[in-house]
Structure prediction request, 740 residues.
Amino acid sequence: MSDAAIPVTGAIKFNIQIGDELTHNVKPLLHEIKHALDNLIETGKSTIIDLRSIPLAPGEEEKILNTLGRGEVQAQLNALGLSDVSETQYAGVWIVTHYNDEQHVISRFIEVTTMPEILCSQTEDVMKSYSRLTLDLGDNLET
Amino acid sequence: MTNKKDKSLLDKTGLEKTDVNRTLGEMLRSQGVSRRSFLKYCAATASMMAMSPAMIPKIAHALESARRPSVIWLSFQECTGCTESLTRAHTATIESLIFDAISLDYHHTLQAAAGHAAEEAREAAMKENFGKYLLVVDGSIPMDNPGYSTIAGISNYDMLMETAKGAAAIIAVGTCATYGGLPHANPNPTGAVSVGDLIKDKPIINVPGCPPIPVVITGVLTHFLTFGTIPELDHIGRPKVFYGQSIHDRCYRRPFYDKGLFAETFDDEGAKKGWCLYKLGCKGPTTYNACATTKWNDGTGWPIEAGHPCLGCSEPDFWDGGGFYKSISMPTENITQTAIYTAAAAAAAGVVLGTMNKSKKNSAVAAHNKTSIDDLEK
Amino acid sequence: MSEIEFLNWVRGQGFQIAVIIFIAGVIIRLAEILLLGRKANLAEAKGSEMSSGLRTIITRSVPDKSTFQRSTFTVVAGYIFHIGLFVTIFLFAPHILMFKDVIGFGWPSLPTPVVDALAVVTIIALLAVLTHRMRDTVLKFLTTKEDILVWMLTILPLITGYMAFHRIGMTAPTLLAIHILSVELLLVIFPFTKLMHAFTFVLSRWYNGAISGYRGVES
Prediction:
């Protein structure tokens, strides 16, 4: 396997070839991304595509990722295992990959958005950090 | 971003509330799980349960505001493999989130209490949450003699019937609880039956497998927690989302089956090339489970990928299918012996009948009987 | 009874019953025919019975010219479905496995897509044969209930086998069980119908050759 733009770590490789036909899902998917970008521009609505829900032949996921490539942003999350949130060479098209503790991909999404939701700090977490910082500073929680 | 002084939101970190009154969201945050991590888990769950990504916020909201349901886990005639499967999940971070979400009020293998204290805890949980607790059962129930399997002197049957009364729903985990499993195999010496054979008035979700894939167990629990309902079930009570497809229809070796390329032994060229394992006894064509897509050990692999034919372990009576290494096109019993004995007996009978016919013919000839059309049509 | 219980039964007890009736029926019928014997022919033999008989078993496989011209459709369609039946029954890998289990040895199989295609051809040929039989006045006159029964018993395993392989219509274990059951039904009724021609054709071809050979003429 060639070096993908976004590393697929921990995947176990087998010497088994499944068949020569690709499921030809690559081009339609890229078109779907194109339409999602259009939608984002027109209405501001984000679109999330679950890569696991599409039957892809081995090698097709790589092809999609290679086509989308790497852009300016690469964020690594450390939340219950690693997660990789990267903008592709096409601004507005992000790849969000979730890994578990053993570096296996548990899910992968293509998000067409200005900022993937998971990158934003969550309200509840912010509330918690306020109360924690208050306690750490020795201040009263009521102030 | 809301007003940081919003007291009601601040109180959500409250540690004073007792466990059972806390929502899942509160409980997770109190354990240091950030909402971001929680979102990641919801995304993975939605993907795993084949739900559209649009469902992710719904799952997140539902799980966050869910009250921790009380779960009573009864283990009957079982090998504890199902519990092992569930607790051996390597990404304890993801699957155990669900385990942490539930209030596991009774579980032989996992609980610290024993003896009377344990039984009292169970009865207290049942009383407190009557009509709302989730009953999980693994292992079959012996009906021949209640003494075959008892807990604290209470027979499995009695315990099941009593505990089922106040259950909101029952999840039968493992092929033993769903269809009788190994104890039920020929000649079924204990008279083992499944949960579904005994309980007729409560919703039952069957999660078969020997053992079931861990994410299937947790996925069913997640569905129940998220939506409060039973997922769509097939004709023998299995969630269609995990058991709707046969192994054969999702097997990556299927192209070899379709082309007729089979491994003949476990170490021949065909096996090394990853050809179809039909001839080695694979029950994939008649088995419905998620192994081929969801796989085992968090996607590491599954039996066929490891080179072993499917046992059909999520189907009823898979132990009586003629043997794991006998392909499904082969008869399960010894036909050769039957054929030889039948041939011998038939030859003898044939000789007798033939001789009788011949003597009948001879006497007809001697008596100069006319041949009729009936004689010819015989 | 669950699907798998049903499948296990047809693979187990059902198979036993079918095999017993089939083997007993075939052997007893053949024994009866053979033991009936023939009338002694007092004329002098002008040639060999046995060699002509044996040769005729093979040569009768080629239809003679006048038969072919008179009943072209029947001969051609007949050959097609007989060859098709032979291939689908004896040259399909899962079936060979079954034979290997029962008689102790197997043989090479044909590629599955070939067998699959031939199964379709065979089904079509059988349908054509029945249609022809019903539309031809003479054939229709000669048709009995047994003919229809035998036709159905022959086509059912093909159709159910195709459905089981392609998993059409019902859940997989049920499809497979129905296919095996249809074969067992065929086996059980076989010895009591004209399907016995599968074995008696050897006897009749031999007989035709023998009587000609005895008289010293071509058969």
User: Anything to note?
Assistant: Residues 13-36 of chain C form the longest helix (24 residues). Chain C has eleven helices and no strands.
